[in-house]
Amino acid sequence: MANTGSNQVPTADVASVASSPRPYLPGDLAMWFFILAELTVFAIFIIGFAVTRQLYPDMFQQGQTYLHPVAGGINTIALISSSCLVALSLNAIKHSRQNYAAALLGGALLTASVYLAVKSWEYNELIQQGFGLSTNTYFTLYFFITAFHFMHVILGMIILGSMAFKTTKGAYQGKSLSGFESGACYWHMVDLVWIIIFPLLYVIN
Amino acid sequence: MTHHQGLILRVYLYLIILTAASAYMGSVALGSNHSWLQGVEEVVLASILLVTLIKGLLIVDVYMELKQAPTLWRNLLRAYVILLPITIGLIYILF
Predict the structure, then answer these.
(1) Is the N or the C terminus of chain A less surrounded, counting Cβ atoms within 10 Å?
(2) What percent of chain A has pLDDT over 90?
């Protein structure tokens, strides 16, 4: 006699398995390896900055007084806003709202431009005051970390621009959104790094 | 407005509030010489780093949409935003 009872799955379990979404990694796998590599490089710089600060506390405290915390705050809000608009854009494209998605990407580019403008102004202010890469260890690390991040913002904006252009051409209609998701995740990575850099450079003194 | 749109906008609001909170803590608590703040710098520092950690987790889970990602990838990114602020805190407090 077969014991069918032991093989039966309770109805509630079947329902919960059926309703739970399948794990899904947005974007290309290669992009995620790239993001991990980038995050690792930034982590090394950030930890290096923290350790060096403990070695030269006076130099770092003095150097920080020449920074503009308001500019850092504006840049944080600009990047968070940009990230939000990119996330909304991805959501819009999933609902086949191509024009709205392109407009949101345009907004993301605009807010990212605020970051570039404010950061350029901040660099100009520091250079006018005579500070540069070779001033001391603090400014070497400050310029190195922020300029490296600045370059990532520029690359991210080129990617967002390309995504916006392709969206207006209907490139993501009825196709895989992998390319769009990859670009969006790269941009969020840029935002994520700044969120860690901001308190380190501007807030903690 | 879809549920996900609402979530994205709510997270945006949280991120702005958390940014303002950490900036306030930094300028008022760490940048002042109030006697009542003596000895609590580590607590303020830990709070700022905790805020940073929470902001990172919100971006990873909601904006990067890793909440539904395979566990390995989600945990890798979550480990990054958890361990990096903790490492910074330990360096600042212990050394």
Answers:
(1) N
(2) 82
The residue extents of the domains of chain A are: 41-203
Does residue A56 belong to the interface with chain B, where contact is any CB pair within 8 Å?
A: no
Tell me the per-residue pLDDT of B15-46, one tens digit each, with 9 for 90 and over: 999 999 999 988 877 666 666 566 678 888 99
Secondary-structure class of domain A41-203 per CATH: mainly alpha
Model ipTM value? 0.92
SS3 of residue B46 by DSSP = helix
Taking CA–CA distances from A95, the nearest residue in chain B reads: B2
Task: Give the B window 46-65 contacts with A, CB below 8 Å.
Answer: 48-49, 51-52, 55-56, 59-60, 62-65
For residues A170 and A172, give the distance between their C-alpha atoms in angstroms, rounded to a whole number: 6
Here the contacts of B75-82 (C-beta below 8 Å, separation 24 or greater) are: B76/A36, B80/A39, B80/A43, B80/B56, B81/A192, B81/A196, B81/B53, B81/B56, B81/B57, B82/B53, B82/B56, B82/B57
CB contact under 8 A, A80 and B85: no
| Whole-number Cα distances in Å, B25 to B14, B48, B49 | 16, 7, 11
